[in-house]
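SUBJECT: protein chain
CONTENTS: sequence, structure tokens:
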Amino acid sequence: MTVVSLGAARAGIELRQFWRERDAVVFTFALPIVLLTLLGSLFSGVYEGSTVTSAQYLVPSMIAAGVASTTFVNLGIGIATDRDDGTLKRLRGLPMPPLAYLIGKVLLVVAVTVLEVVLIVGIGIVLFDLSLPSSPARWLTFAWVFGLGVVACGLLGVAAGALPRTARSAAAVLNLPYVVLGFISGIYYTPVGALPDWVIQLGSVFPLKWMAQGFRSAFLPDSILPQEVVPSWEHGRTALVLAAWCIGGLVLCLTTFRWSRRG
């Protein structure tokens, strides 16, 4: 069997394990959906010069948060758990290349992330009258932002899986940077252009801000651009930043991944 076929077989095992843990399934999908519903209900009004409401502006940002949650957080916790309970050590003794294990994990988070995005977009359409991308070009923008975002956050999640010392501490260790990045990236605030300059500059270093901006460019009309940091969607810069984080995440994976826990 090839590495890809072994990875696909491992992905099937990962998916079955994921769906059997009902509490993890509920909380994985519920977090961004509940936040979107609550925050979207609190924010009201239409932005001047546009037909976009505050709740509609929030939906693409929550899509980015959902991508980061199911890739960075869940993937990091899953790897930390596999390392702590000895799963990784046992798999290391099997005739399965390490890349096949990582392919299985990546395919798992891709499948879960796609479903999460569908649910968030559905909530946006039903509750907040969000419109789907209106042209093939906008769908293409959504696709490449989603692809680069999943790869970047997934690789960072693999690398971050080395941070928790035990499986019990994994959720706390990985959720803290996720929540902090959500705030400094303007995920829970509308409009982003009204954030303090130092917050904008700090958030611009990380991929979450650029994912949210890319998704807004796909779902929202150009009339909302005055509410952004600059009056442009900056697709070129978005692609460069996300690609840079993909490369940096790969380097971190290669240097930090371990098959057994410390000590």
Remarks:
- The longest helix spans residues 54-84.
